[in-house]
């Protein structure tokens, strides 16, 4: 009998089949056994995950890192130690997988796909290849990671929508462990605004799989949302490596709070979105308080990355309205220039919400009340309180950096803890 993953079996043992006739008494007894088992499991779960008396539990309001700079994670529901085994499919072992990573002609490189909004597809894959939690044995794996750079491939003409759909179906049909679990232990990354909708047949094939995405938006005007809290994980956006570097100085450093020119800024395109258009108009009315330059993505007036971060750091508050979806990368970028983010997106879901108390490091303001009252409120916040939020934000921002899981704090560690939580919750 082959073991697939800690108690699961790939093949059933042979033998004669027995036909059991269950009467009402048997049914009642079985139900009572199920209830008792459930209650006992809950009690053991509380006992197993309760922190030691000498180590107080970590609440979202508590410090995220200890004195050594290591990440502190709550025991409840996660376990006290990371103990995962993740199998990473090789691009050559499944026919079609290389096309999802390199395009139909194999000419798209991982390096060219590592930047921009879809860079997390590359970074998470490369970090898992080097992870101490990686296993080369499928039979002992808790999770299976399916690498794909499909958003980048599509944007660069490597595959069209029809080819993406056909290739995914071909790839999944060749994975016996995917069929065995119905895909529930297989992990996919979909970082763009389209989310899993890039794979048109996701609702048929990935309805039980774990999707890593920054797109926790269930109001995207699609018939069916591809994000589900019970199985999927919100991940941070892909901030420029020059700002999140663990080694050396960032390309742009924060400006001391009293020397910043503006109360707030909005550095983004209007995109015809109501909230963004209101901010552009507000900046025209109060140019000494709110900076909102017109961003050019191409041409001689294009704003370079250094100029962008220099603008971003010159305000106390960085406004983050929703765009095509509920989140914006500026929310994460603002932490690295120590500008307090102001969330102007009512339905946004952020990463690691069980651990981080976002009210201590950011401000949430109703998108329907974007106007002078927003600036008045921001002006009323004492500088000491802003400094306090910035200080706490310094602790949290390591969770936005895609660094190896050997680092004391990183986005990868946060994702691994969330995967372990999924493992424990499904029993």
TrEMBL record:
Keywords: Glycosyltransferase, Golgi apparatus, Signal-anchor, Transferase, Transmembrane. Its main location: Golgi. Residues 83-370 form the Exostosin GT47 domain. GO terms for molecular function: glycosyltransferase activity. It is found in: Golgi apparatus membrane. It is a single-pass type II membrane protein. InterPro entries: Exostosin (IPR004263), Exostosin_GT47 (IPR040911). Pfam families: Exostosin_GT47. One of its GO terms (cellular component) is Golgi membrane. Transmembrane segments: none annotated. The keyword Transferase applies. The keyword GTP-binding does not apply. Belongs to the glycosyltransferase 47 family. This is Putative glucuronosyltransferase. It comes from Apostasia shenzhenica.
